[in-house]
Write a structure and sequence with these properties.
DNA Polymerase III, Chain A, domain 2, 8-stranded antiparallel sheet, DNA binding, DNA_polIII_beta_cen, 3 domains, about 375 residues, DNA replication, about 15% helix, alpha+beta, Proliferating Cell Nuclear Antigen, 9-stranded antiparallel sheet, 26 strands, cytoplasm
């Protein structure tokens, strides 16, 4: 095989497929990038068996300026090869593999020879039977992922909770994640549709996908029995395995009663929490307190080893019983970041019950829930 391509366009494609490649794999060839060159374009593939990404650079791409000299295929060490391409001096790069499994890479005055592996030994991408498909704006999917993936569990002892539960039914999409200490749930309507699916997508897959959505306008989501496929524009496909099992009924965690409420700007409260967390992180417990009353509401943190901080917060509205509650500031910060500059209502039942954060307009059907910390 032999081709010449614009180096920056090539780097962009390499960065995409590298998202699916892990240095920790039981199959050494999966640390490589697979490249197949045809008369119509260059296809790059990366996979760690959980995630697979395939992107094609067509010869018709005016930016990539791909010139095909000889068709063929090879796999090359992903990290090493990508680092070489990023550091080449010229605007174009030429790769030639004319015999055996050695590739010659040239650009400007630089020339590299690196060893590859037989492309026929690279596992094939999963063949799936599509059961449902749905098209969403990429910006919507970015928002849904960002608002929910923060609550997935990091504990591999609870594998089902390391994913986000997506339910598609009756023209609505509901995404929910919980690690049993907090919960994030977002519901949106996508119009009249007969799409029905109940799937759990690993949080790690969604984070990699989120990083690829910025430059596409729409995403086609295809659901199969054990895979979900995201078509990102005409040339890139993102595959993710699905988690198996039954996701817990998260709706039971959401309290229906609020005895105390406070309405406040999310960004302003986040700044206060950030300041209090400076002290709580230095202490042993990493806990801050929230005292809510009609007269005055306060955020405080007290660490015998470090010191104490108190700051009054100015709410737009406070109603209900006076309450003092303790919580992990990192959970609170993650939740507040997901609202941006919105006005939110925080609802409390008691100092020992989970509390909720929702936008005051509630047009996004979005809820964050945090479980308090017992301090006695």
């Amino acid at each position: 095989m032999q081709f010449t391509i614009n180096r920056q366009a090539f780097i962009k494609a390499l960065n995409n497929v590298n998202r699916a490649i892990s240095s920790r794999t039981a199959m050494p060839i999966l640390t490589n990038i697979k490249m197949i060159l045809t008369d119509t374009g260059l296809t790059l593939t990366g996979s760690d068996t959980d995630i697979s990404i395939e992107t094609t650079i067509p010869v018709s791409d005016d930016i990539a300026k791909l010139v095909v000299t000889e068709v063929g295929g090879i796999t090359l060490p992903a990290t090493f090869f990508s680092n070489i391409v990023k550091r080449l001096p010229g605007e174009e790069v030429t790769l030639a593999n004319t015999s055996g499994l050695e590739a010659k890479i040239t650009s400007g005055s630089a020339e590299f020879d690196i060893h590859g592996q037989d492309v026929n030994n690279y596992p094939h991408l999963p063949e799936v039977d599509i059961q449902n498909n749905l098209i969403l704006p990429a910006s919507t999917l970015i928002e849904v992922i960002g608002q929910t993936v923060i609550a997935v569990s990091k504990q591999l002892s609870q594998p089902i909770l390391t994913g986000v539960h997506f339910i598609l039914a009756s023209g609505n999409l509901t995404a929910v994640a919980t690690d049993r200490h907090r919960l994030a749930q977002r519901t949106l309507a996508f119009g009249t549709s007969d799409v029905n699916a109940d799937i759990i997508i690993p949080g790690a897959s969604l984070l990699q996908l989120q990083g690829m959505l910025e430059e596409v306008e729409t995403v086609e989501i295809r659901v199969a029995s054990n895979q979900v496929i995201f078509q990102l524009g005409p040339n890139t496909i993102f595959y993710s395995r699905l988690l198996e099992g039954n996701y817990p009924d998260a709706s039971r965690l959401i309290p229906t009663e609020k005895r105390t409420t406070i309405t406040i700007n999310a960004r302003e409260l986040l700044q206060t929490i950030d300041r209090a967390a400076l002290l709580s992180h230095e202490g042993r417990s990493n806990v801050i307190q929230f005292m809510v009353s009609d007269a005055k509401s306060m955020i405080s943190s007290n660490s015998p080893e470090v010191g104490k901080i108190e700051e009054e917060i100015f709410a737009a509205e406070t109603a209900g019983d006076e309450l003092t509650i303790s919580f992990n500031p990192d959970y609170m910060r993650d939740a507040l970041k997901s609202f941006g500059d919105e006005q939110i209502q925080i609802g409390f039942k008691t100092a020992l019950d989970p509390f909720t954060l929702v936008p005051t307009n509630n047009e996004t059907n979005f809820i964050q829930l945090i479980t308090p910390v017992r301090t006695y």
